[in-house]
Amino acid sequence: MYSTAFLDLPPFQSAAGTVRLPGSKSISNRVLLLAGLAAGTTVVHDLLDSDDTRVMLTALETLGCTLRRDGSALHVTGLGGQLQQRNAKLFLGNAGTAMRPLTAALAVLAATQGGQFELSGVARMHERPIGDLVDALRQLGCPVTDLGQPGFPPLRVGDSGQHALHTERTIRVRGDVSSQFLTALLLALPLVTEQGPVTIEVDGELISKPYIDITLGLLARFGIEVQRSDYQRFVLPQGSQYKSPGSIHVEGDASSASYFVALGALAGIDQPVRIEGVGFDAIQGDIRFVEAAQAMGAAVTGGPGWLEVRRGAWPLKGITLDCNHIPDAAMTLAVMALYADSPTRLNNIASWRVKETDRIAAMATELRKLGATVEEGADYIVVQPLQHWQAATIHTYDDHRMAMCLSLASLNVLAGAQPPCTVRIEDPKCVAKTFPDYFDALFSLVEPVAGAVPVLAIDGPTASGKGTLATELAERLGYHLLDSGALYRATALAAKDAGIALDDGPALAAMAANLDLRFTGHDVFLNGREITHPLRLESTGGMASQVSVHPEVRQALHALQLGFRRAPGLVADGRDMGTVVFPDAPLKVFLTASAEQRAARRYRQLIEKGNSANIDSLRIDLEARDARDKNRAVAPLKPAEDAELLDNSQLSIEDSVVQVLNWWQQRQPF
Ligand SMILES: Nc1ncnc2c1ncn2[C@@H]1O[C@H](COP(=O)(O)OP(=O)(O)OP(=O)(O)O)[C@@H](O)[C@H]1O
Ligand SMILES: Nc1ccn([C@@H]2O[C@H](COP(=O)(O)O)[C@@H](O)[C@H]2O)c(=O)n1
Predict the structure, then answer these.
(1) Domain of residue 102, residue span
(2) C-alpha distances in angstroms, 656 versus 326, 556, 668?
(3) ipTM score here?
(4) Ligand 2 atom closest to Cα of 542?
(5) Does any ligand 1 atom lie closer than 6 A to the CB of residue 601?
């Protein structure tokens, strides 16, 4: 996951390959609640691991459910409808799929068994309506107290007393704001069917009906057959009891599939994008996004648990669509609309306004930053095709779907953007709500425009702090890291192992071309042997400098270094990053410090690691190494003509980082 402040997406020109989707959020949290209310143990396979499921799991544990992980399966032992804790405070983040059903279930349990629970979330959750559900629970006779603004969380359910509930009454609930209110009642009210059937009637037109189908389908898996008449009237039979199905599989998230369906439609030019985990047999309503994508031009094939998507019509075709049945996935259509031949109008999307953010306003604002013409209304949005693209910084409003949808703007070169534009996604970690590895999945499928993956090159003499600076910059930018010195060091170690003389250029080069070198986190392996410690020894640095004078060795390691240049970007440190290996790097830094400072730093570094060292001989060695690096015939150590010079003798590490990030930012189009 990218925990950086922002993530710059270079322009991409095609996509191909396979993505395995994480589990559906909607199914995961419903299954967890049902397993938590049922008696016995339910083994849940392929559960989504994300922010929203984590808050549900924490809540269930707080309430007394037992959770046990077994590889990718989760064993949930439920309460059997009996409260084990009568008093708890539950924090539910921004998870509507946890807040609404838990409010209903705990209101009913607290009222009938005596208990009191407080449910709260993040600030945005406290702006998301829940009043219609609270009204329905109060009709039933459940005590519910507003702890903030009436009609919104935080709430207290129960008052520690026991109450007879009016289950004989028909419970009325509004269906036109969020279908989660009805889902919450359907999941909770089997708890109070002992005396007779419980009837729920929906006031107004029910939105997002497919989500109700998921709820009814999962209730059936847990032994509860709800009688439904026209999505208006729902009857829970007398004596309903949650019965664990024993084991249950969570299918891939159909809303998350929408980004990859769109990717295939836009950029699956020679090869398809294959999506695994969700297919035409999906029980989630958002699978019908596929029909909308097809209407825009996507060529889709599929089967049970898989889809393959290629570009069909190009440019895409603008559409007008009532999106009531696919409220979440419909956001993806708004971004696909930029690549269409005519305007796209998405109707009946009022629910966007009460999601993680006001998604109609957010979508309109961010698409306009890219240059688009957008019209927004109370419950619709119209997006015009985009001809004159602009690089933009996309604000994501702590909304995972804003980040994932808008990432598709990085394919702008396909719509003729000249020059192709970089798209900056702010707060990329917001995708953790449903798809923590989204950007890794995206990068594994897309092919960047040639030369578009940016490189930040840092060269300089020994112990100037290149590695320290490069590591920090890579972390803050979310970029890959190339410690090119490590390749020369590993070559030297491999030569020592193989008994190859350090002046035998051709033999060293033949070996360097076939190095079996693996980087795993901070550890380095050569031919399967861990060399993390010997790699960093000063003596190895000295040998590396002898190895590196041979042009054949440098040539042999060249392609290996180029291979590190992968999306979203690279920070590379060494001696010739800016001059030879990445001459087109948009920022080259030549880092220096006085020999005295460098010897003192290296001395401290070695002592801190528990090695013995002598500062005078260290200085002699590093000056000798620098002299060899500067005076060799090929790729000598020197600043590139267009390098920024940074003498950090008097700078802290953080000062150096800030200075380089400033230079980096000055080169961005935002
Ligand atoms: N600006 C700085 N101020 C003080 N200490 C620094 C600074 N930059 C780096 N250091 C310290 O100097 C030591 C050497 O830094 P580092 O290993 O990053 O250098 P390097 O240039 O990558 O060396 P080499 O070329 O040998 O790989 C480290 O202990 C690091 O913490
Ligand atoms: N791009 C590079 C990187 C390193 N070298 C040589 O390797 C030696 C060790 O490098 P460290 O950065 O790990 O200390 C270095 O002294 C150079 O001789 C190189 O030539 N080119």
Answers:
(1) 25-242
(2) 48, 32, 19
(3) 0.98
(4) 16
(5) yes
